[in-house]
Amino acid sequence: MKRHISLLVLLCTIFCVTNVSAQFRYGAMLGVNLTDLKFSQNLFDVDPAVGFKAGVATEVMFPGIGFGLNSGLMYEMRGAKLHLGQKEVWGSQGYGTEHSYLHYLTLPVNLRFKWTRMNGLEDYVAPYVFGGPEFSLMVGHSHVKALDYARGDVGLIAGFGVELFKNWQVQGSYTWGVTYAERTRLLDDFSAKNRSWNVSVIYYFRR
Length: 207
What we know:
Organism: Muribaculum caecicola
Number of strands: 11
CATH class: Mainly Beta
Protein name: PorT family protein
Radius of gyration: 19 Å
Order of helices and strands: HEEEHEEEEEEEE
Number of helices: 2
Distance between the termini: 36 Å
């Protein structure tokens, strides 16, 4: 965790000391996700579930080179359906198919590269790729008493998108959970990590 905090501090420092000529803007973001909880063992079936996210996105781009940073702060709901009743250890306690939803405040800190030298075409459409860490603080969860929940989550993001008419961005990404999100109370070291497909739309208020 100390390594993750140090990385976040370093990236935020780079963000703050950026050359004043860098282009900063912010906007509103809305998206959906499809999340699977990947357990350390396949003891029962897990079905992915649809969630959503919303918040504020920021972008800093360095003119002329196409590189930049994107971050933001958003609320996100992830989760999956857990068929706990398939195993006697939980079925005997009355558990069946349980919905495990996780609610987070999320801070992504990603590097990005945007194609901006296309002879004016970039004013209408500009593809980009991005990736980096994502830090999440859990603010709520489903009340499945068979589970214990982590206080937060760290993930790695990789994605691509397209910018339209300078103000709109449509993007897709995949997030690998690095730390565990939840674990069962009855079995030692039986924990799950988030795996999420994400699609988002962002509108930036400044060009």
